[in-house]
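Would you mind writing out a protein's amino acid sequence and the numbers that encode its backbone to help me picture the idea?
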Amino acid sequence: MAVKSYYELPLHKVNNDLTYLTPIMPVPDIKTGLPYKFNDYSDVDEPKFDPSVHLNIEKPEYVTLLPDYRRAKQTHGGDLAYSQPFQFLSKEGVAVMKKIVIRNKPECGPSRGCRVALRGLYYTSPWVRDLHNCPKMLSMISNIIGEPVVPTHHINAAPQVNFSIPGMAGAAEFWHWDSISYVANFLLNDMEEMEGGDLEIIKMQKHAGMDALVNGTLKPGQVEKLVYGPPGKMVVCQGSEVLHHVTPVKSTFPRIVAIMCFAPANVYKPDKLVLATERQEDKSTDHEGSATYEFFRGRAWVCGNALAGMATKVPYSEDGKMLGDRLRSVVHELERVADLLEGKTSDAIGFFNEENGKHGARYMGDN
């Protein structure tokens, strides 16, 4: 069953008075048998990532806040909807990133909408791995979001790169909200050269927005189009709470967007990761089983750090029930995750299929 509110899960509800910042999750020690080859700089033709060369970070002029989608100069922790587009990569950074993603572009069909997804770059590209872990970049993203963040614990989606399929009719990406707390998207195309491919956002609470889509009651004034601008410009978004899609691409070349994924560094705040979505994305690229392993690793990392946080952040107490409830919150999360991994339950959140006007979780390629 899909989680209605991750904040109501015992791990996060029982321990919402605690703060324990996790470091970046390491890659597996055992790299044999991984679905993606783990490369370092000696294995691939990539320059060493250098933030002074490859980044050109500018501060967004404003951000848009939840729940009323008003503009402000800064967030207040947890209320970010999305930022104004701002420059992120330098021209050198755009050129390197584009070369890497073109080299690794998968030959597969779409999973959702009219696009294919490239995943696993955290393993295969040392430049991309260093970019996603860059302290300067993480500090910038954290400042925009209003809380410390780390790369997603589901590292084969750090990042995901979507290529639209030229000549394929329909939305490049159906209406949906994301399966990870925060994303930071940047285009590798110049949108002035493209026809279509616009990012649009429904300025409503996500469930209300989905109801409006299904019932045909959505009003034009409730949709906002974001204009990225030149390649390397970024939009930071709390995609797990914002309903969005990408309009049909009519150009003869693909729209290429990199989606960097982030989780709150505080382990007691939910990262809102959805296994069903990750499985479907990996299925479309012939790595169907990898999501199971990645989800297992990520949840083990979260629960292990949750226990470490309890050992260091819970003050002295002789209240056995309170202490027991904290430990049981981790047990509950482990059991929830184990049931998902074994297929006993599903956390699918679905999307709005613009071809049939329905909300569901049936992906392209499903039998």
Q: What stands out?
A: The chain is about 30% helix and 20% strand. The first helix runs from residue 10 to 13. The CA atoms of residues 114 and 172 lie 4 Å apart. The first strand starts at residue 63 and ends at 65.
